[in-house]
Amino acid sequence: MMESGRLFFDPSACHGKLLFLGSGDGVYRGARPMIGMEETSKRRPFFSSAEDLYDEEYYDEQLPEKKRRLTPDQVHLLEKSFEEENKLEPERKTQLAKKLGLQPRQVAVWFQNRRARWKTKQLERDYDLLKSSYDSLASNHDSVVKENEKLKSEVASLTEKLQAKQVVTEQTPGQRADPLPVEIINVSPLQHRVKAEDRLSTGSGGSEVEDEDGPQLVDSGDSYFPSDEYPGCVGPVDGVQSEEDDGSDDGRSYFSDVFAVTGQQQQQQQQHEEALDWWVWPN
DNA sequence: TTGTGTTTTATTGCCTCC
DNA sequence: GGAGGCAATAAAACACAA
């Protein structure tokens, strides 16, 4: 029994184009064997037993150039080896080839194709992770928009009440009757709430909020979203910083400090990072 | 049985690294 | 320049529905 060719064909004979029918244009068209369709009746089933594979008689009837699948045992060993290290050093290639009764070239090709399959799967996994991450962010965004709408309507309602109250005080002698400043109508809902509360609680009439463009809420020591009133809001507002203020720009989401990350999200993040670690194969 | 889709084995050409 | 890796691709082998 031949050492290297006992299981399958002799791949060394397959590397050239001599065994293949030419396509006529000199261009290689793939591993077309020199056998006719009548050979199909001699096809070996995919899951042949090891005994069959060592049966010389079985292969004597086969033309050597026929493409064959590896046995489950061979694939198992190759998979184990791939798990240990997905790249193949020359020495390991030779050892594996001897062990499996294959040509080193076949082992190398198997690893090459296996890496390609792994990469495809990895891309699918990465896509799924990114998609779930996006879905989660989109969901958060929706809830923020709804909360914003709710706050806006609350501000409008409070403004109406405030104006009504001022009308009453105007008609009452001895009371201040300052007209509502125009700016209070135009500021963002959050700032609006701050200004209104400043006026109502301290009576100072002043406000430290000057910039209407950004969410620059000055630290007053209090949360503008009392947890009992706004259970959906996590953490004090003074934790919100503008991007300019934030010296700890580590590339993470701006919202990560505002919205608590769920356990699931943390797990997904960790999985993704592990996946990316895997992605960079060691050399 | 047959047509069709998927998986596996293998080749080719290009690129990078030493 | 040779060795090895990867992407693209071909074709055999296989699975499966009609």
Q: How would you describe this structure to a colleague?
A:
- With 283 residues, the protein is mostly helical.
- It has eight helices and no strands.
- The chain has helices at 50-54, 56-60, 72-84, 90-100, 104-170, 183-186, 189-201, 263-279.
- The radius of gyration is 37 Å and the shape is rod-shaped.
- The protein binds a DNA duplex (18 and 18 nucleotides) through helix 5.
Quick synopsis:
The protein is mainly alpha-helical and 283 residues long. Helix content is 48%, strand content 0%.
Low-pLDDT segments: 1-64, 179-265, 274-283
Average residue pLDDT: 58
Provide the succession of SSEs. Answer: HHHHHHHH
> Termini separation (Å)?
38 Å
β-strand number? 0
Shape by Cα distribution = rod-shaped
Nearest-angstrom radius of gyration? 37 Å
Estimated structural class: mainly alpha
Describe the largest sheet.
Answer: none
Q: Which percent range fits the helix content? A: 40-55%
Taken as a percent bin, the fraction of beta residues is under 5%
Number of helices: 8
List descriptors:
single chain; 283 residues; mainly alpha; 8 helices; 0% strand; disordered C terminus; DNA-binding; sequence-specific DNA binding
Write the layout of secondary structure elements.
Layout: H1 50-54, H2 56-60, H3 72-84, H4 90-100, H5 104-170, H6 183-186, H7 189-201, H8 263-279
The protein binds a DNA duplex (18 and 18 nucleotides) through helix 5.
